[in-house]
Give the backbone structure.
Amino acid sequence: MTIEISVIILTFHRAQGALNSVRSVLNQKEAPKFEIILMDNDRNASAKLSADILAAEAEAKQIDFTYAIEPEAGVANARNSAVKLAKGTFIAFLDDDEVAFENWLEMLVAAQKETEAEVVFGPIEARLEQGYQEPHDFFKLFFSRLLSGPTRIIEKPYGCGNCLLSVAATQELKPPFNPMTNDTGGEDDLLWAYIASKGGKFGWAENAWVYEDVPSNRANWRYLTLRGFAYGHNTTAQYFDAATPNYVAGVASMAKGVVQALVLAPIALALWILRHPQRAWAYDKMLRGLGKVFWGGPFKVKLYGNSAKKAAD
């Protein structure tokens, strides 16, 4: 039987997370023929033990499972290496901190058929570990992807985690993920911009749910600062780093960032002094504004690969 979907899971120093993620895919119900590719971005193969366990479980269920190593650190490197191994017509991306519901693939495929979109995104519910910092509601929402309404075409794309991508939409782009984003992320933003420039559509899969397990060392103010700033500079960088740069849009994004930062800075300060529950929201939006302005060179936040591990330590 022809493989319809290649499920790609990247992992970096998260052996248990990779185990949980792959197992959730092995437990899919009513899914079309699929394979699983676990790409370890650690040259020391830190996920090897988990992969050996998963290989046996996959064999018992007669599901194709591939464990591979991309020794060069970087999220784009790992994605590109995994895509080269994929045999499916579609690629489903699941992060190594995500656990899919048992009808996840079925719902992604159903939404793609309904919308005929080149990329379909599903909802994410964050699960915070004990030890999180307040405000709890903000951090839970920050790591979740909650869009109300039915399966449909949407204008705004999301991140790679929990999405279904048509391989045909990337055939002319080699490699599909820009290595310039290896440390900073935003590799998906550049790919989505390319697909949109070719007339591609984005869809929403209302019922393709996954959980995202968020450790306490990410649900905190320090990580929020790094992630908010990174989101901002990726918003601007996508215009300058695209295969066909759009300098006008890039400058416009920087200008919007100036206004956003100036407006939200005093609001964030006032809410912080008052310990208001919305202080985290204002602080995050202010940082995104600053990131849109200071998006290049030494200002880039490195969230992936070895740089990310050092930052976490």
